[in-house]
Design goal:
single chain, 389 residues, alpha+beta, Ribosomal Protein S5, domain 2, Alpha-Beta Plaits, eight-stranded mixed beta sheet, four-stranded antiparallel beta sheet, 12 strands, binds alpha-D-galactopyranose
């Protein structure tokens, strides 16, 4: 068992006093390489699961309660197990655990009285899916021996986010947290919910740079974009009645409808259709080892998110432009929902240290604050990582 997991087992014993049936579960955060704001449009995404992960230590209790403790927040909560399905959100970290418990119950799986100890090293609020990592690891820790198919695990975690945390996100974050693989990005088709691993060329490294800002607008803008994409589908249906999502129309067909769709709605749709096409082109470039082309596609994705989808912000635009000026950088783009959080940058192997130093200096000079830079190595998806004795 990794040192971190062993330490958490000891901590669980200290906090809850029990020693029987202790098990440790892990679920990773993610960085999305390309395919942004496409998941809730039944589109294509290409994220990687990160080495940064959330760990949940789980043991049964005979107190008939669900008890949870976050080591990150130094806070605890408890409910009688029978009352869990009736709980309402409290708008804090505990919602991601409680929401999962509520969905497990709703899906007809057993809810057992357990004591959970949670610790995450996924940077919080950075757009690297700390919440999905918590949801998926909590689901495993609550279900324990009751195993369910991995796709259902991802779905329960996503439903917790949609229904309990109240965020109308797509399935990308929870899906890759479950299905991530070492050495590969995961191409997810959000229409069929199938995936395949895409091996990354050897000559590259990936970094995420945290702008350390999270603009208020983020949550409401996300809802607006979901609605605008729905509006676009309605307009498209006047010409193509069978189209049910932006996945089902090519950019070329959409362009011909430009005069019949209001400008902002048209640009949102154009981002989504072109982004799906960029994901396919990126995967093809990846498979033939064309790292220059991969970099260029990241930059076009960013420009489309910046100008058509309008979910970037000055800090992210600055970081992308600063990254592109650094030797050895192949491409960069904002990643995740936008309005703050991280950019993801692709560079030639061996350039990481120089990149981290140069981008930090540039950001510090511009904004007077230190960005965090994370090395992004594809890691494996969620699972059990140890048992206590
Ligand atoms: C957030 C959501 C994801 C996805 C991205 C944008 O991370 O949780 O489902 O929509 O934004 O690609």
């Amino acid at each position: 068992m990794a040192v971190q997991a062993a330490r958490l087992v000891e901590r669980h014993k200290e906090v809850y006093g029990s020693t029987d049936g202790i098990r440790v579960f892990r679920a990773p955060g993610r960085v999305n390489l390309i395919g942004e704001h496409t998941d809730y449009n039944s589109g294509l995404v290409l994220p990687i699961a990160l080495e940064y992960a959330c760990f949940v230590v789980s043991a049964p209790n005979d107190a008939g309660r669900l008890r949870i403790r976050s080591e990150n927040n130094q806070e605890s909560r408890a409910w009688p197990i029978a009352d869990v399905p009736r709980q309402k959100p409290s708008r804090d970290w505990s919602d991601y655990v409680l929401g999962v418990a509520v969905e497990i119950h709703r899906m007809g799986h057993p809810l057992q009285p357990v004591d959970l100890l949670i610790q995450s090293d996924v940077p919080l609020g950075a757009g690297l899916s700390s919440s999905a990592a918590l949801e998926v690891s909590a689901a495993l820790a609550l279900l324990r021996d009751h195993s369910i198919p991995p796709l259902e695990l991802a779905r329960i975690a996503r439903r917790a986010e949609n229904n309990f945390a109240g965020m109308p996100c797509g399935v990308m974050d929870q899906y890759v947290s479950v299905f991530g693989q070492e050495n590969a990005a995961i191409l997810i088709d959000c229409m069929t919910l199938e995936h395949r691993p895409v091996r990354l060329p050897d000559g590259i490294e990936i970094a995420a740079v945290n702008s350390m800002v999270k603009h208020e607008l983020g949550q409401s803008a996300y809802r607006d974009r979901v609605r605008e994409c729905g509006d676009a589908v309605e307009k498209i249906q006047r010409r193509y009645p069978n189209v049910r999502s932006l996945r089902e129309i090519a950019s070329r067909e959409l362009d011909a409808l430009e005069p019949t769709i209001p400008d902002a709605v048209f640009r949102r749709a154009r981002h989504v259709t072109s982004e799906n096409e960029r994901v396919e082109a990126f995967v093809a470039a990846c498979e033939r080892g064309d790292i220059e082309e991969m970099g260029k596609l990241l930059v076009s994705s960013h420009r489309s998110l910046q100008h058509d989808y309008e979910v970037s912000c000055p800090e992210l635009d600055f970081l992308v432009d600063a990254a592109l000026a650094i030797p050895g950088v192949l491409g960069a783009r904002m990643t995740g929902g936008g309005f703050g959080g991280c950019i993801v940058s692709l560079m030639e192997r061996g350039r990481y240290d120089e990149f981290a130093e140069s981008i930090s200096r540039a950001y510090r000079q511009q904004y007077g604050r230190e960005p965090e830079v994370y090395r992004c190595k594809p890691s494996k998806g969620a699972g059990e990582v140890g048992k206590g004795s």
